User: What shape does this take?
Amino acid sequence: MVQIPHPVESGDFTREVVWAAAAPPLAEPVTVAEGILWLRLALPFKLDHINLWLLDDGDGWTLVDTGYGDARTSAIWDGLLAAGKFAGKPLARILVTHFHPDHLGQAGRLCRRFDLPLFMTRTEWLTGRMLQLDVSEEFIAAGIAQDRRAGLSPELLERRRDRGNAYRPGVTPVPASIEILEAGDAFVAGGTRWEVMVGRGHSPEMVTLFSRERNILIGGDQLLPRITPVVGLWPTSPERDPLGVFVASIDQYDALPEDVLVLPSHERPYRGLKVRLAQLRAHHRARLDETEALCRVPTTAAQVMAGLFPKDLDLHQLGFALAETLAHLVALERAGRVVRHRRADGVEIWQSTGRAG
Ligand SMILES: [Zn+2]
Assistant: This one.
């Protein structure tokens, strides 16, 4: 455990997002605020790291998020714990913000090994546990059906089918029992009281934690400083309009202090939440306009995706790009800005109505 020598805080956070700390090396816990450790772990993706937080409960730690569920990350955890990297104190409980593999991946393994309670919202737990257990043909079929409607090429359909359930390898078996968190709950950890604020759209019921006393927000993936969280329509998702839900869900953070320290799940801690909220809203407005412009002529979701995203996407990125494209199309449809019809071959065709946004 090392102290960050020089917090980086320059510039005006009322005009731009300002970094509040320098990034420590991977797998090297550092103190980011009194009683809060910041642990960066590697991810096997283009987004190459995740931030975990450890809240000091005196005789143990509350761990917030856990890292990807692969063997490499398991080995890193084993090494950290064997070396007593957390001031020699054990993990006491785990809170997972949402079901995505980089957050939930190691939770089951750590909970079983140390007999720890796991705190999650009901929907995140149900979704993670369901997807981790799902080896059904129907699961694959639901994805293929969505891909077909979107007009993906036969070659891509084939490759996506072969991939199977891509969620399972990234998540160790999810515990069969948890402690439920709900919006508005008080969660006491790290010597302070955190208000549970539930973010939606990126995942169904993500926990974010706000301490008024400490003026700190643990923001999960909801309020990333520079990249925007994927907001996608997934074949197994219960959300009809994820983008509308996401945009509505971030309004709750307007009420927080302007100088709140945000601890996001990726990149670095920052100040400038209000600026970031404005940027997120502007980004999605512009993205909706772009999507609509691509529908001036009748088009498939696959063609819209090609216009919105660079062409050289790997299979992992393609899944996100397609889900995000569909979320934007569905949001435009609800606003009356595009309509869709199904071609005889089952592929959906989207077209702008010319109605302004
Ligand atoms: Zn996520």
Observations:
- The chain is about 35% helix and 20% strand.
